[in-house]
Amino acid sequence: MNAGNTHRITMKDVVYKADKNNPPVLTIDSGDTVVFECKDAFNQVIQKPEDLPIDFDMEHINPATGPVYVKGAEPGDTLEVHILNIDVAEQGSCCIIPNFGFLAPEFPEPWTRIIPIKDGYAIFSDKVKILINPFPGTMIVAPTEVTHDHGTLIPKEYGGNMDSRACTAGTTVFLPIFVEGALFGVGDVHAVQGDGEVCGTAVEIDADVTIKFVVNKNKKIKRPHYENKEYYMTTAWGETTDEACKIALRDMIDWIVEEKGLTKQEAYALCSCAVDMRISQLVDITPGVRAVIAKKLFVE
Questions:
Q1: Alpha helix ranges (H) inside 170-240
Q2: pLDDT digit string, tens, across residues 10-20
Q3: Which of 30, 197, 219, 234 has a Cα at 20 to 30 A from 240?
Q4: String of b and e for 187-222 (b: at least 16 CB within 10 Å)?
């Protein structure tokens, strides 16, 4: 992998829409590294317990730092997003937002908890501390069509608010490229999150995210894939978790056939024996899942 140059983008350069017309704030070469200064998903309006999650300016929520134009990235290519490091701020927040969350009707009142980060733990209360495992909930490239319906809040084939805790430092996220230059942005960092993100928020936090970019001309995918040292993962979203699971499973079968040389029947059976279907999030209109397989199963 090309060593490349290192760049930095500050918090003042953010977008709130996935849009091919967003002007890039930085142009880089394949192989370059970028440090993104990311605001939390609340756009820094939740800073103390009295700041309740009501009356948000929905036009300025879930900011994504960027976009970055990657030279040589063309439609049909894949952008390799190598997450190298994530440095989180000294405090984050978790909120219950009225009319939002998996059990929204049962929790109608707004609620805020400010959560300090100390020695690698999120201090949820004097009785609970959680080992942090930070990741960016939103990684996005520009789609072909201009769509502003959900801004950066909803996951789609071009990424978006995927909220998958698999995307930590050491993970490579593969994103299909739809427009020249890819126009990548990142944000919505969580210090920690459970699979499902059931109340609708995790430990939302400001952070610096360091990413190395590589344009892959050979890999062809329909939706984002993830890979780390141990696992390969496909991911998908749908109107229901069942629909999302079927899409992610079909993508995993295709990957096993194309990359590992098994027949389609063998791949389907292998998925039944060895693939875990895991929920990423249940709350962003289209629930998200990931299919996970251990790479050590394959004898090279």
A1: none
A2: 999 999 998 89
A3: 219
A4: bbbbbbbebbbbbbbbbbbbbbbbbbbbbeeeeebe
In this structure, are residues 173 and 139 in contact, taking their beta carbons and an 8 Å threshold?
Answer: yes
* Reduced 3-state DSSP string for 42-87: CCCCCCCCCCCCCCCCHHHCCCEEEEEEECCCCCCCEEEEEEEEEE
- pTM, full prediction: 0.96
| 275: containing domain | 229-297
Structure confidence at residue 62 (pLDDT): 95
**In the prediction, which pLDDT does 2 show?**
62
Q: Assess contact for 177 and 78: CB atoms under 8 A.
A: yes
Task: Indicate the residue among 220, 241, 271 that finishes a domain.
Answer: 220
Q: What is the pLDDT of residue 288?
A: 97
Tell how far CA 152 is from the center of its chain: 11
Residue 297 makes CB contacts below 8 A (sequence gap 6+) with: 270, 274
Identity of the amino acid at 102: F
